[in-house]
Amino acid sequence: MNTLVINQNQNVEQINNRIVKGYEIYKSGLVNEVLTDRLEKAYVVGLNKRIVSEIDSVNGIYHCDCPDFEFRDFEACKHIFAVQFKNGA
Ligand SMILES: [Zn+2]
């Protein structure tokens, strides 16, 4: 039970860190929409130029090509938070 509580707290902290980093990326002007030949919008995000794709604009579902996004089982990463800040979410 204690372990579960600690893990939940760590998870909240990790998510907060990603939101803060996402905001810093957005404020640095490092979120730029790019033209693609596909229907969904895509953005180049951050110093490492990660690609965030908007899968579903109505429900706010995004995909990012960074390892953090795939490793964390498709939780929003800092790049996705940065795009959401840019879009006023
Ligand atoms: Zn990412």
What are the salient characteristics of this protein?
89 residues, alpha+beta, 4-stranded antiparallel sheet, 3 helices, 4 strands, 45% helix
Explain what you see.
The protein has helices at 2-27, 67-71, 78-86; strands spanning 31-34, 42-45, 50-56, 61-64. The protein is α+β, with helices and mostly antiparallel strands. It has one domain (12-86). Strands 1-2-3-4 form a four-stranded antiparallel beta sheet. Strand 2 and strand 3 (50-56) form a beta hairpin. Helix 1 crosses helix 3. The longest helix is centred in the first third of the chain and has 26 residues, at 2-27. The protein starts with a helix and ends with a helix. The chain binds zinc ion (ZN). Zinc ion binds at residues 50, 64, 66, 68-69, 77, 79.
Strand order of the largest sheet: 1-2-3-4
Low-confidence stretches: 1-6
Shape, principal axes of CA atoms? globular
Distance between the termini: 35 Å
Oligomer: single chain
